[in-house]
User: What shape does this take?
Amino acid sequence: MAVLAVPSYETPVDSLWDLPAAAAQGFSVGLVKDTSIQYIFQEAKSGVYQEVWKLLDYTKFVRYPDHGFDKITQEKYLFINSQMNSELRAVQRGRQRFYLAQQTFYPQGYGIACFSGAPFLPKFNQMLMRILSSGLISHWKDIELGRASSSSSASSSTPTLTGNRKPEAITLEHLQAAFFILVLGFLTAVISLVGEVAWTAWSKSCW
Assistant: This one.
């Protein structure tokens, strides 16, 4: 999850602990209503989550993330939203128009729900584990952000910084060809070794 604000806010909101000071300066804090993140704050019995819930104004809650982004640019409004969703929408609307808090909270993952005893569940688990361990999720995210950035730059007559893509990390997907060549070379070596051993054995038997 991430907290967003307009870049002109002199004291950046970089964590949940910065929200009380921002609220004291007239900023309202909102999120998407009827979601898991609302439940987390609403049910908190102590700590910073409970303090944040006291700051939240239900009248400022929105039905969709796009409405929250509209409010950020129209009024003194801070929007709590999922990190990936926030990054994508900020890029689509012009990354330089928004400030994303440096510190995130409540890491959240997504899964596939199946009926009890589903025969394909082990295969799903195996496939998802491979995708996560290979770094494909981050790679796909970077691709989508790059596409959104290019689309935003092309549709805007004002040059922006969003067209500058960050260098992508090398993942297993980039190294697939190298692994294939390595395996092919290994198999060739094994075949050659087996052939040589067989030839040596046959030669000895002939003599």
Notes: Confidence is low (pLDDT under 50) at residues 157-167. The radius of gyration is 26 Å. The CA atoms of residues 30 and 59 lie 8 Å apart. The chain is about 50% helix and 5% strand.
